[in-house]
Amino acid sequence: MFDYEEVPENYIAVEFVNTVRKALKFSSRDLGIALNVRFFRQYDNASPRQFPGTYNFKHKIDLAGCVFRSMPSTVWISVQAANPVKTVFHESRHVFQITKLDSGDYEPDADTYARAAIDAFYHWPEAGTADYFKQCPLP
Ligand SMILES: [Zn+2]
To answer: How far is the CA of 32 from the centre of ligand 1 (A)?
Structure first.
């Protein structure tokens, strides 16, 4: 099991947050769904909790992002995600699956959507010229 805690947005590099928000704006329009974002990090004994008052959860795999069925419009993005834009698109598609589809092909469909969305995002004028794949160092 891995332990995760929510990271308040003001502790995250502003370029990371802006890049994620741009990607989220793209997928929200592209998929026709409302989307919010919250951020998290993995913690363990070597790197204990830094934000004890925030939401925390466990999961059996090492997550770059996730969506909880109890909060179906919220995409959760790890501040440690190697490719946060792709993760936003993958998780946005899960929101779409939960709210709009009734299909069982969840992971392949999310991966296919993420690959297509990345290509389209690069050609989207509003995406700008930020480094979309920048990793976020925690303070
Ligand atoms: Zn997935």
So the answer is: 19
Helix (H), strand (E) at residue 27: helix 14-31
Q: Which domains does the chain have, with CATH numbers?
A: 2-127 (3.30.2010)
CA of 66 to the centre of ligand 1 (A): 7
Cα 92 to middle of ligand 1, angstroms: 9
Q: What is the pLDDT of residues 39-84, one digit of tens each?
A: 999 999 999 999 999 999 999 999 999 999 899 899 999 999 999 9
Ordered strands of the 65-66 beta sheet? 56-59, 2-6, 36-43, 74-78, 65-66
Residues 110 and 89: their CA atoms lie apart, in Å, by 8
